[in-house]
Amino acid sequence: MAFFFNRGRSRQPAEVVRSTKDLLLRIHDSQNAPKAKEELAKQLSHMKVMVQGTQEVGALPDQVHALVQATLQEDLLYDLSQSIHLLPFEARKDTQTIFSHILRFRPVGYPSDKEPPVISYLVHNRSEVIVELCRGYMQSQSAMPCGVILREALKSDVIAAIVLYDQSSEGEPTIRLSEVKHLLPQKGDGVFWRFFDWIDKSNFEISADAFTTFREILTRHKAIVCSYLQTNFELFFGRFNNILIQSDSYVTKRQSIKLLGEILLDRANYTVMMRYVDSGENLKLCMKLLRDDRKMVQYEGFHVFKVFVANPHKSVAVQRILINNRDRLLRFLPKFLEDRTEDDQFTDEKSFLVRQIEILPKEPVDHTRATRDSSSANTAAMA
After folding, report:
1. pLDDT bracket for residue 5 (50, 70, 90)
2. What are the two backbone dihedrals, phi and then psi, of residue 340, each rounded to the nearest 5 degrees?
3. pLDDT tens digits for range 147-183
4. Domain spans of the chain, in order of start
5. Residue 160's CB: how many other CB atoms inside 10 A?
6. Pairing with 287, which of 44, 139, 220, 333 sits 20 to 30 Å away (CA)?
7. What pLDDT was estimated at residue 7?
8. How far apart are CA 101 and CA 84, in angstroms?
């Protein structure tokens, strides 16, 4: 009975949101912070119950709708994204839950084929929230809860567009969805480019979570990422190769090589793959991975190396490197990771690569020139 009595006296969603916002302002004041944090933790716990309900009683759709509207009206998501690193541990977890529920909330009757209303609101009106969540990787306390919230938001292509194309500095307005210019090359100083350093230079927990979000962006949103990589090819792969593939961290290095293979072998990225495997410098980097001291780095490197060798239209630069190293490769590959005796696919791929290297011409062939000559000959014959 007490439960129902308390529910009757519960405060309205708008009141809870305003109280939470006021407390968020107070935790930045060192003198009042301890008491404010204690009160704020209670408010966030209460708000979590409002959005997700309890084991006994589910959330009330009308109450959740009112809470979402009040949250947007008071700009609470922005305040939470800026202050989450200051919250106590349990309050950070509650904030993560609140955020995630609000991001995917759909009112009764809302079309299932449209973006959730809060997602749409953020990308058109308050994309600073998304960028602040990314900057959560700057603080160890906020990295993982912000990462979880980001990955919930990144289920939508429009959120990925904001992360990829925003180039604002801290304190500046961030990009809106209507301002995204897919064909405009970037300078490399936006929030997306900071993931390289967050992955490479942070402690293990932050690095691992940042890499998970980074991979989510690059592998989930195929159409937008393919366009993005084509427009920013040199800048992106320059940093990917130099920072991630050559990282001093074994975990970062191995994961990044594996991610590179995923990107290149994704059918949606065919144009990107062909451009990457045209580069002799990229091939040299890949061949260096085959000689790494760690077997899993060698193994992941092999799956990128095979793309260069299997390409039937190898560039002159790639052909020249393979031809110059033909004898060494033919001695090296049969013994490469020969203890993987139960991996039949790997064994077959090695045999295929050996055969491709054996049949390389003595001198490089310019396939682009051959194609042009053939086209000219056909045109002349038709004339």
Report:
1. very low
2. -85, 60
3. 999 999 999 999 999 999 999 998 899 999 999 999 9
4. 1-105, 127-244, 308-383
5. 22
6. 220
7. 45
8. 16
User: Which residue's entry shows tokens 């009595």?
Assistant: 5
Element (H, E) at 247: none
Q: 229-236 long-range CB contacts below 8 Å, 24 or more apart? A: 229/263, 229/269, 229/272, 230/271, 230/272, 230/275, 231/182, 231/183, 231/184, 231/185, 231/186, 232/185, 232/186, 232/188, 233/272, 233/275, 235/185, 235/186, 235/188
* pLDDT greater than 90 at residue 354: yes
Per-residue burial over 261-295, b = 16 or more CB atoms within 10 Å of its CB, e = otherwise: bebbebeebeebbebbbbbbebbebbbebbebeee
pLDDT for 147 equals: 98
Is 137 in contact with 202 (CB distance < 8 Å)?
Answer: yes
In this prediction, residue 58 has a pLDDT band, given cuts at 50, 70 and 90, of confident
